[in-house]
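Treating backbone geometry as a discrete language has practical consequences that deserve illustration. No coordinates are needed to read the tokens, only the vocabulary itself. For completeness, the protein is quoted in full, as a sequence line and a line of structure tokens:
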Amino acid sequence: MRLAEKVAIVTGGGSGIGRETVLRFISEGAKVMIADVDYIAGEETLAIVEARGGDALFQQVEVSRRQSVEDMVNTAINVFGKVDILINNAGATNDKMLGAMTTKDWYSVVDVNLTGVLFCTQAVLPHMIEQGGGRIVNASSIAGVYGNIGQTNYAATKAGVIGMTKTWAKELGRNNITVNAVAPGVIETKMLSSLPEKVAKKMAEMIPLQRLGKPEDVANAYLFLASDEASFINGSVLHVDGGMVI
């Protein structure tokens, strides 16, 4: 098993890509802290893990609140004894065209997608340094690389995540901590399910592989970057987009 004896924290682990990541990690032998602001979704994911015989716990957390994050990490340490892997997967969107974007619209995304990644990483950092290493994987997006109409706030945060990833990779490599990012393209999540079928079909046609991504496609990328197989990969941004932005 690729993550045997490892302990992982997955933010946004209650649903979508996060849930798939939790289940993928459990199948590879990891113990997982499921962290999510959505209590019902988090408990549902935990129930699935337990039904499969996995070892996990769930804690409701608001990643934009430092104390909430520190409490979550301390719980993981108290229960599992360590944290080897942090998957900064939690995210938010609040799309508006530039002229219509309010201060509230801006910060509702920045607080989760950017500040939340900072708080979670700072909270696990001393533990990873003390134990001699770790893996940090951040969720960016192709929107953070190429921009996207109506997503000023989202694209800015995902570009910022890439900047933080590269900075931390340089800072933390000497502590045997790798920091990488995943930049998903169009993924079939609950958020996407509200789109009309013809719109989804048109989006798929824009992708060389002629299909939309699935949550497990991103979960597999997280798994690789969290595993020992990626021990010499640091500061990279792995696109999981089917070739959409070639």
About this structure: Strands lie at 7-11, 31-36, 56-60, 85-88, 134-139, 177-184, 237-240. The two ends are 33 Å apart (CA to CA). The first helix runs from residue 16 to 27.
